[in-house]
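Protocol step 4 of 6: structure prediction from sequence.
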Amino acid sequence: MLKTLFRRNQSNSRGLAVPVGQRIYAIGDIHGRADLLDQLLDMIDGDIAKRGEAHNHVILMGDLVDRGPDSRAVIERAMTLSSRYDKASFLMGNHEEVMLGASTGDPKMVRFFNRIGGRETILSYGLPEKQYRELDLEELAETLSELFPAEHIVFLSDFQDQIIIGDYVFVHAGVRPDVPLSEQSAKDMRWIREDFIGDKRRHEKFVIHGHTISDSVDQQRNRIGIDTGAYITDQLTAIGLEGGERWFLQTSSAE
């Protein structure tokens, strides 16, 4: 089942806007849920048809992989988005960072990859579960150095750490308060949590982010979080932005 959150058009009180003629759809953490991504993209297509002409730019906010059952399919869908929309952009999440490290065959990165949901990603690439269980760490590291298609690794390696559009900045995890956007570290933009989430001061740009799961869209005076825990809740969320308007689209369980 699909649903729309809040009003279809919702003005913001600060006069924030994206440039005229642009329409942005930013999608939160997917975590291997290709089924939900397909649903939400269809919903975005329907929303575009209702809204009319604009330059439609889809942004995936990082953490495409791990935890859910079909990370490979999510990456394959993502690789087609540039032909489906006027523009598609991708942010580097902490899970992509670790997957890329594991793909080099580094045993320490492989161990960490397994700890944060990499098992499901590995199985989605066709490694039998029995073989996965039987391999020791060194053997698994060697296997991973050849398991992921080269074009997938190249695609993930090109992900960005921040995207600035109008009055908004899009990052996976957040930003370090009081640090200019031009000086933000990749580590913070991929991994930061409490120091960002707990800070109520306004930033250089209004921040759209994922990474930190919330029960519903987390709307604050200086940021909006759109990670609604898709891999466990069946709720994958997108924020739409056009001019000074914002709205939300979300998948939902059938319950």
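Step 5 (inspection) to follow. The chain has two domains: 2-92+212-251, 94-158.
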